[in-house]
Amino acid sequence: MSTAAAVCPCCDERAQKLAAFTFLPASLRPDACERCVLPARPELSDDLPPFAWPRTAAEVEAGIAQVEAQYQAHVNTILAIPEAEITFDNTIFPMMCPPHFKTNPLVCQSKHLQHCSTDAVVREAADKATGVFAKLKAASKTNPELYKKAKLFTTLPEYATLSVYNKHFADAIVASFEASGLGLSAEDQALLQSLKDQDTACCAAYKKTLGEDKTVLTFSPEELAGCTNDFVEGHKKEHGKCEIKLNYPDIIPIMDSCSVEATRQALSKAREVDAYPGNLELVAEGIALRKQIAALLGRSSWAAHCTATRMSGSPENIKSFIDPLLEKCREGCQKDIEVLAEFKKEGAGGDLPGSTEGGGGSVEIHAHDTAYYSNLRMKRDYGVDSEAIRQYFPLDHVVKVTLEIYQELLSLVFVEIKDFDTWHPDVRLFRVNDEASGEKMGFFYIDLHPREGKYGHAAIFHLLKRNKDQVPVDCMLCNLPAPSADGSPALLFHDDVVTFFHEFGHIMHGLCAEGDGNATTYAKCPRDFVEAPSQMLENWCWTSVALKRLSCHKDTNETLPDDLLEAMIKAKNVGVGLQMARQIYLGQLDLAIHGDDVPADASGLQALVDEMRPRITLLKNPEGANMLRNFGHLMNQYSAAYYGYLWAEVLSADMWKTVFEADPFNKDAGMRYRKQVLAVGGVGKISEHLAGFLGREPSQDAFLESRGLVEA
């Protein structure tokens, strides 16, 4: 293999794409230098996750075939058990952890790289794995003979003697069969499966369009006025113009800081009008399919079908929850817009560059204005300069301290592993041990920086679930800025710090869940609670003690000065009316498109957005703009569930105020939280677990006080 970069076919590409990496073994690129191919895999051991990440499409396909064979053998084994010999161990437990679930390492190994491989061919193969495994899951849930075995077990004497944990699974498995249409005619069962397959394909196509978007906008440095010099220089190309993509590290600095309204408007238009071709039509197709699925299962809408097994219970209960909150935030939303309009009017008078409207009269705040003028408001009225604050949050320091805080709070120990198989050299791996016993609890990967083909937002992927001696494995994929080519550290806005802290809370939820098969299909937290633990943990990022630890100036190593820290905390609820109105709008839009009256096509979706956005957020929807083109939550497991963010935030505020506010680093409280909220996963009723943790039923009072909507 040549070591000369001049003749390496990969190095030029690496130089053009900071953080890109050729994901191929040396045997397939004999002409590439050592930096451009992956090293040999280390041997697997108990000190490593049980994954050998595929490096070619053929390896992915081999894994898929192996899972399919394991699944068929698994089904045959259960079906061969005589009725007289059915037990929990030979029938129910195998259904808890079948080979096509995330309790099998091969499932993750075959499909996870669709989100993060640098090889488009591998991503494509891994994406196909998702469809194959979805079909296996559907087949397992619609097998009448398997259902018959599970149902029969619930009539046997052993069923009455089961622990609460095991009884949950026996009941959940039976309920899952029945929810999959086994009570339907053979004809309707076939139709139901066909509809589900079509919806899966529709969502996959939508996701692919998002992941493979190639949109690049070109601006002169002058058109990026207000952005930092580092940002402008980091995006400048040989022709002197700056190239901007539609990922968060590019979008957020511009929408927050660029004083040229035409630039912000162009970026907003690209995301909501021009990019992601065909996605609006795919949303229309998907919601129609889900409506038909719900009807076959006896529900009036997909929203009614989904909420029936959640904390909310029904769309009507969500409305009763949301309507008072919308009423309380509406006045604040109007005031926030009026304040921002005054700032814009000042700009129109010449104090701020780049406004497209003339001075002297009234001005209108557009959606592309809110982040920019909110940033100015924070800076001028509250002394909160997001760019100045950013200097105190180098990425490496934030990651290090976040991990330290979680270890202290939850009585855990993280050990970084250096030699492991990976899909990219930037990925880090940690083993998690219980502090008191030293017991290995699991592993987690973190993959922090954007690159071509990678999942474009921030999310946690629960790769592997606990199963006897096998511990869980989680992965965090983010798109936080990478260090500059000159070695300057990556700096985070405070919002990025909160996001990282939040997402890491999901990792802890996955690794602290106890019991075999916990958090699998049969033991998931209700979708409207799953965000609550991480939202509760965001509060640490608003306490002076945690902010002092999380901050470290990139040049001086000083922590946030008291005046800046106090200004941040004081300004926490600035703009809350506008923020809450947007959150309510997103949740209500989700429920509307999954409700009784489903828009028939893309034009119907456009009409709905044109009506709902100004009514709820008090901001006009630009012509042709439709954020459903890139609202990926609604084309995955969050469909009819986005309201859950606000639902969960109310619960999280109650947990924080009741248990942690007085002493955020109380280890006894942290362990109680770990055992009573995280460890139980989705087994039993989370409302009962939560009441036990709080010592009473949850209340909205803490949330309303924390958001400044009522006086404390």
From TrEMBL:
Please state what the protein is called.
Peptidase M3A/M3B catalytic domain-containing protein
Q: Which Pfam families match?
A: Peptidase_M3
- Superkingdom, natural source: Eukaryota
**Domain Peptidase M3A/M3B catalytic positions:** 255-708
Q: Which family does it belong to?
A: Belongs to the peptidase M3 family.
Which cofactors, if any, are listed as required? Zn(2+)
Entry keywords, A to Z: Hydrolase, Metal-binding, Metalloprotease, Protease, Zinc
PANTHER family from the UniProt entry: PROTEASE M3 THIMET OLIGOPEPTIDASE-RELATED, SACCHAROLYSIN
Q: How is the cofactor bound?
A: Binds 1 zinc ion.
Q: Does the keyword Cell wall biogenesis/degradation apply?
A: no
Q: Does the keyword Zinc apply?
A: yes
